[in-house]
Amino acid sequence: MMRIVLFLATNLAVVLVASITLRLLGVESYLAGSGLNLTSLLIFCFVFGMVGSLVSLLLSKKMAKWSTKAQIIDRPSNANEQWLYDTVAELSRDAGIKMPEVGIFPAQQANAFATGWNKNDALVCVSAGLLNQMRPEEVRAVLGHEIGHVANGDMVTLSLIQGVLNTFVMFFARVAAQLIDSFLRRDDDGGGLGFMGYFAVVMALEVVFGLVASIIVAWFSRYREYRADEAGARLAGSGAMINALARLKAQQEMPDQMPDSLTAFAITTGQTRKLMEKLFASHPPLDDRIAALKKAAYQQ
Fold first, then answer.
1. 179 pLDDT exceeds 60?
2. Can you spell out the DSSP letters for 266-288?
3. Binding-site residue set
4. Annotated binding site for Zn(2+)
5. Which one in 33, 123, 178, 278 has a CA-CA gap of 20 to 30 Å to 285?
6. What span, in angstroms and rounded, lies between the C-alpha atoms of 119 and 37?
7. What are the pLDDT digits (tens) for 261-290?
8. What is the DSSP letter of 294?
9. Which residues are in the Peptidase M48 domain (predicted)?
10. Do the beta carbons of residue 184 and residue 191 sit within 8 Å?
11. What is the tens place of the pLDDT at every residue in 65-86?
């Protein structure tokens, strides 16, 4: 909860700085003449930009269970489930977090994910394929990776970053559209964009600014994958984490079986080859992740 409060406070300060900057540059007074109140617009965009992200975060566990058809292990029914449950419990204690819910979802592709609005109210799931294809120490490393996401508060931070970027996409799209409209009114004797023209410009600008925002979100998502790999190596051993990623690399030509809504939270998302794919990818290439772990192990 403190992470959320501090993040929101920080970004409210950013919004305030943006408002002051626009005022000092004379943009606010210029737009005020056309009837646009920047302070009200900022508040409107902040509320609507954050609501969607926060609602998605609060519903993330339920949506993940539903979309993956995960079987939650409340009472282990066999030796494999007991081992999985006990391993997650042990890693959670080592990471200093409350035991998350544990589940298995039906997919032949080896994969796993963690989600939840709070590090003490999370969900960690692995695929049936992962349990069948990996050695116990490799599964343990993957679980350590997912526990690392939970302990680092990655789900919360990613959602808040998305919400703040949504705010600025909405805000600057409308400011830019209003500036264009005001400019055209001045040059065309009151013509301007008109209602439909203004709406079309706002939508087009939101697409452009949204692409930039997506690049920022993807960059942070890749960064947190490296941190989670470090957590997996710390909790389960560097060798096991490297071997687990190498095993994932061997199957990255397989079609991705994760729901789109959970792609950013999975341990792998398949192979990315093209520059634009890498720019928008939520995960770094597995070769880069393996190299980073080997470098860290060598430096130790």
1. yes
2. BS------SHHHHHH-SS--HHH
3. 145, 149, 225
4. 145, 149, 225
5. 123
6. 39
7. 666 666 666 655 566 777 888 888 899 999
8. H
9. 79-296
10. yes
11. 998 899 999 999 899 999 999 9
